[in-house]
Specification:
By secondary structure, the protein is α+β, with helices and mostly antiparallel strands. It folds into two domains: about 25 residues; about 120 residues, Rieske Iron-sulfur Protein. It has three helices and twelve strands; from the N terminus they run ααβββαβββββββββ. It has an eight-stranded mixed beta sheet, with helices on one face. It has a four-stranded antiparallel beta sheet with strand order 7-8-9-10, with no helix packed on it. The longest helix has 22 residues. The chain is globular and about 40 Å long. The protein binds FE2/S2 (inorganic) cluster (FES).
Length: about 150
């Protein structure tokens, strides 16, 4: 086998892989997060467990939740003033999971920098559509999301 040809082929292969990774720029596979909590849905409602509710209402500022049989992830944010917000975590640009940026005070996508208000409204692109918002309340110390 010609050692020089193999090296060149390997080099070209690495170049193509690097270009593909660069073009992706942090697409959904890289920006996808595993949910913090998987919750059974009951009549269109997700009721977080005691431990997750306690953590979220305590010192934890956000939780990524999904219904046991669902594929949509919901980001629930608890602010210091006690307010709760719940939105679909899928960025409307290319689907990466957005996160709560406490320093900014709103949601930010790690892939291409889109920003959203806590109600899902667009603040900064490239995403142009808002995130879906969900109703979220508390009931006897448990966080309840209505789908
Ligand atoms: S996936 Fe591109 S900004 Fe969110």
């Amino acid at each position: 086998m010609d050692r020089r040809k193999t090296s060149r082929r390997d080099f070209l292969g690495l170049g193509v892989a690097a270009m593909a990774a660069s073009a992706c720029g942090g697409c959904s596979l890289l920006g996808s997060r595993k949910p913090d909590a998987v919750v059974p849905e009951e009549a269109g409602v997700l009721r977080l467990g005691e431990a997750d509710s306690s953590a979220l209402l305590g010192s934890q500022t956000s939780l990524l939740v999904t219904a046991k049989d669902g594929n949509e992830k919901i980001l629930v944010v608890h602010r210091d003033d006690g307010s709760l917000f719940a939105v679909s975590s899928a960025c409307t640009h290319r689907g990466c999971d957005v996160g709560y940026d406490k320093k900014l005070g709103h949601l930010r996508c790690p892939c291409h920098g889109s920003q959203y208000g806590l109600g899902g409204d667009n603040i900064k692109g490239p995403a142009k559509k808002p995130l879906k918002r969900y109703s979220v309340t508390t009931d006897n110390g448990r966080v309840v999301i209505t789908l």
